[in-house]
Amino acid sequence: MKKYQIAITALALSSLIGLTGCQQNIANGTPRITPTPSSIKTNKPSNNISYAANDAASTKEGVNQVIKANNQFAIELYQQISVQPKQANSNLFFSPFSLWAAMAMLYNAANGETKSQIQKTFHYPAFAVLNPNSAALYNQFNTPNPNYELAIANDFWLHQDLTPNPNYLATIKRYYGSQVAQLDFENHPEPSRQLINKAIASHTKQMIPELLVKGSISRDTKAVLTNGVYFKSEWQKPLTIKNGSQPFYNLDGTTTKTDLMGSLDRFNYMEDGQVQVIELPYKGSELSMLIVLPKAKGAKAMQSLIKNLNVNQLDSWTQQLENKNISLLMPKFKLEESYQMTRLLSKMGMPIAFSDRADFSLFNDKAPLTIDEVVHKAVIDVDEKGTVAAAATGVIVVTPISASYNAEVIADRPFMFVIKDNKTETILFLGQVNQV
Questions:
Q1: Which CATH class is domain 235-331+385-433?
Q2: pLDDT (tens digit, 9 = 90+) per residue, 246-274?
Q3: What is the per-residue pLDDT for 365?
Q4: Which of 12, 82, 304, 315 is the most buried (most CB within 10 A)?
Q5: What is the pTM of this model?
Q6: Phi, psi (5° rounding) for residue 329?
Q7: Rounded-to-integer distance, Cα 111 and Cα 208, Å
Q8: 26 and 122 in contact (C-beta within 8 Å)?
Q9: Mean per-residue pLDDT over the chain, rounded
């Protein structure tokens, strides 16, 4: 029996993502969209909970379980990406939360060994814990905040000639705020791809004009799930640009002249024999970037950091942070990374989901389904004002300040960074700057 395809698209980037509303006809309670790119309508404010999830059954303990699972997956995926032959000296950046949330929606339709392998790979707790507490995080991250913009968007695009499982649709709408729309993948695969891309481009203010490449949607495609994570904020205190470009020592041994930005100020900081860790708070201090800089230079130091990293280590560094006078220098950087996740996730423990043995119950029609591809794209732009997308910012030239300080952090060589929500310690983004 022929297996049909499910496309899982996890989108994560630093640019505007809004919740899209469309003018549609309703068929059996599910929006049906004419598969032409012009039919998409844009978009509501990014920090408006237009589609709130039901978190009535969430608990503090349950939220902690969900966060622990996300963070564990984040570290394991980071380690898996880092050892890929093509990765080598390249930069690395992804949103574990985006991938984790997108797959959580599909996990709700998984059965048997398919379900078991996905669970072990993503460390999902029982559904009674996973769903309401994922809803709690979804609502919290989408709550408007004057200090930053953070928004999560989930969508489920399904083939119009199949009858969706009503229990499954109710679950992803209820707990993941997912919007559901029907497309004619069989007769109009290319217009359907363009429509989904247009929706994503609209969410991201054209930062991601083509997430799904030509040919990625075929006549056999039966469903596409998409997730978007958007974050934008200024630093608690702006950094300044050091007068004149400075060298950055890339992981491959080359040197790049670049603008370094910095500050002599009080930061949360810790160090041990192997690393320096500094926390850069965003406005309001509710989210922050954690920079981990190996003390030793060269590729071996970074490889050792990655190999020995775990959730407990990251928690330990965070707990040891102390407020001190720190002299900080770091590069401005912009990363744009794309990953085909099929092979990575298979190696991490869920190959059945990508095979003809896959078992998913998305539809009442009992159509055999398999995951065709998991696509992930992430973009981030970090400058002296904060973390923004494609921003044009002014350069402030200052005279070096002479004053006493407790420690000096000069990130003029490869470093790891984490963007996390400080209220929950959820890892939203994780990256590694190997070259600028």
A1: mainly beta
A2: 899 999 999 999 989 999 999 999 999 99
A3: 74
A4: 12
A5: 0.87
A6: -135, 135
A7: 33
A8: no
A9: 82
Residues of the chain with CATH 2.30.39.10: 235-331+385-433
pLDDT single digits (tens) 367-426: 788 888 888 888 888 989 987 422 211 111 122 234 556 888 999 999 999 999 999 999
Residue 123: how many CB atoms within 10 A of its CB? 16
User: Given its phi and psi angles, is residue 112 left (phi above 0), alpha (psi -120 to 50 degrees) or beta?
Assistant: left
Q: Taking the CA of residue 147 as centre, how many other CA atoms within 13 Å lie in the half-sphere pointing to its CB?
A: 13
Which pLDDT tens digit goes with each residue over 50-74? 578 999 999 999 999 999 999 999 9
**On the CB side of 397, how many CA atoms lie within 13 Å of its CA?**
3
Question: CB-side exposure of 204: number of CA atoms within 13 Å?
Answer: 25
Residues 6 or more apart whose Cβ sits within 8 Å of residue 316: none
Q: How far apart are CA 69 and CA 194, in angstroms?
A: 34
Measured between alpha carbons, how far is 105 from 153 in angstroms, rounded to an integer? 12
| CATH fold for the domain made of 4-233+335-380 | Antithrombin; Chain I, domain 2 (3.30.497)
What CA–CA distances, in Å, run from 33 to 90, 159, 268, 302, 359? 40, 11, 50, 48, 27
Integer Cα distance of 338 and 197 in angstroms: 15
Helices 166-176 and 96-107 pack at an angle, to 10 degrees, of 150
> What's the rounded mean pLDDT across residues 126-146?
96
Six token digits for residue 69? 């699972």
Helix (H) or strand (E) run with residue 412 in it: none
CB 102 within 8 A of CB 178: no
224 membership: H or E segment, kind and range: strand 221-234
Q: Is 253 exposed, middle or buried (0-12, 13-18, 19+ CB in 10 A)?
A: exposed
